[in-house]
Amino acid sequence: MDHFESTTCVVVGGGPAGVMLGLLLARAGVDVTVLEKHADFLRDFRGDTVHPSTIRLLDELGLGEGFRALPQSKLGNFKLPTPDGEVTLAAFDRLKAPYDYVAMVPQWDLLNFLVDAARQEPQFTLRMNTEATDLLHDDGGKVAGVVYRTRDAESGVETGTGELRATLTVACDGRSSVLRQRAGLIPREFPVPFDTWWFRLSRHADEQAQLASIMPRFSGKEMLLSLTRKDFYQIAYIAEKGKDAQLRAEGVERFRARVAGLRPDLADRLDEIGSIDDLHLLDVKLNRIKPWHKPGLLLIGDAAHAMSPAGGVGINLAVQDAVAAAQRIALPLLRGTLGECELASVQKRRWFPTVVIQQVQLLIQQAVFAPAVKGQLAGPPSPLVFIARHLPWFGKIPALMIAFGPRPEHAPDFARRKPSAARNPA
Are strands 297-299 and 211-214 parallel, antiparallel or unpaired? Predict the structure, then answer.
């Protein structure tokens, strides 16, 4: 090993959960080091939805005004197409302003913004190009940090290895978590019938409305969902799981024809899909582990529970995990009294919303996605259409679930900063 170092808390993974946790702990005065294996945050088609629960949290942290200045677009109501016209399933316009929309913000902009805020705290350290490869243990078997390797930012060539010892190690390294594997924690997998292929198409000037609704399209065994960005559409093609090899073998012309069949209005720009390599496959998973912790180790976000893209809640649920964790571990870390009971309390707090949201996603899979990819769904389920059409107030319930979830978190007192008067949270 080239280096032997120590910190109070090492957070592995510089995604929204990891960076948010680092920011919160640093504001509490905890020495925290975040390890990110990439050279930057510039990776396309990561989750870019920032829901009202996260926007409110940023307001409470005094970061709301800066967040709203980031390049973004706003998503409004979620609508369903029917033979008799559109119906609104999730009515965000029924929620109280300013938390009545979902923001679409490039994840790299959000992460850079949070890192800039965290770097104002002397206790915060971010190490890019640093990949955790294994766990360290003390003589009693407790996790005591990580083994890592570093790479050159330009060439990707390994430049060194080291050990970073810590009182607490937090795994925020995603649904393919290396630390989860090293800890011997195996997630319970739920069946998922579909995968998603992401791509983008430009928006014409006359289409660039500030607030746009979301409406899926169904045809045969296929679905298409478009998210409205500032100057392009971020589009999800949804089909049965395991179809990736077939789609790529068919080639780009056939794929363009598939998209044209679902969205004829976009046929004039389908040559922007230059090759089949422009499709970014999301191998959809839905799982969770139990427990989320071992002595000296805590897992949150996708490392603890991978979510379906249904509702776009994954990032926001991970951020909520980070807030709940910071609330429960910051002071014990400062006092040197952190034990498994505090780690268990994080899971206890977040287990209920995780299970509830995953059960809702499983129901959506059974009612919509599974029939759709089998060619058994020509449109949205009729009972859902009946409820949405005849009980307009019902639209607020799905909107609240997507916006805040069943147990939204608030910023800990130690992390709050006074927001500007114009952005004072409700």
Answer: unpaired
